[in-house]
Amino acid sequence: MANETKITASSSDSEVDPRDLTYQGHVKSIRLVDSARVGLTALALLCGLTILGTSGDALMVYNSTSVSPNFQLPLWPRHFDLRPSVALVVGSVIVVLTNIVSLVFSKVKMLRNGTSLHTPLTFAAPFVGFVAVMISMIFFYAVNASTTVDTVQSWSCQWESVSMQMKPHFGAICKETKTALYLSIILIPVEAFVLSLAGYQMMLERKAAGAAHVRKGSPALS
């Protein structure tokens, strides 16, 4: 009889409260989603830095090699539109800053656990980055569609086959502007996916908080 009592007691002690399993499941999902979000945020940051470097260098080369239209040997056309390149630079700066802030608040434990800004920033950072890259791309294509006014990309790619011993190396500038453009296109779905993961993570965190509240109020765990 005593042995039966011990077996019954040990079996009841080994039972797992389903509320514990629910909470642990939410925590595991949050960790997986957070890891994916942080990884894609790092990828978006690398894309933003590359766009900033290539488009910014193209603008610097233009500024250093453009001359007054009064001279007889202009390297760039008289009517020129820098706005597409400026839009890529501005958009990439915003993407870089927002993703740096997001990564800092995600990886630094003191900021992640010691402030209430982490959860809002998890969603706000990719949202701002997505809007910035979308606006820069819309503006780029709207201006670059002109057939009467050249841009850094259209002009440099038109003369990319010309061999030059000094700046501007039109072939290199053409490659830089194309790289910035293609990475900006890639950055749109990356930021959109990060935004989706951030929203899903916020939903999981709310569910985990609710499960933790029920778990703490459980008589079996008190």
What would you say this structure looks like, in words?
The structure is a single chain. With 222 residues, this protein is mainly α. It is built from 7 helices and 2 strands. It has helices at 2-13, 18-65, 83-107, 109-114, 118-144, 152-158, 170-216; strands at residues 80-81, 150-151. Strands 1-2 form a two-stranded parallel sheet. Helix 3 packs antiparallel against helix 5 (118-144) and helix 5 (118-144) runs antiparallel to helix 7. It is elongated, with a radius of gyration of 27 Å. The relative contact order is 0.16. Mean pLDDT is 80; it is low at 4-14 and 218-222. The chain crosses the membrane at residues 38-62, 82-105, 117-143, 180-200. Keywords: Membrane, Transmembrane, Transmembrane helix.
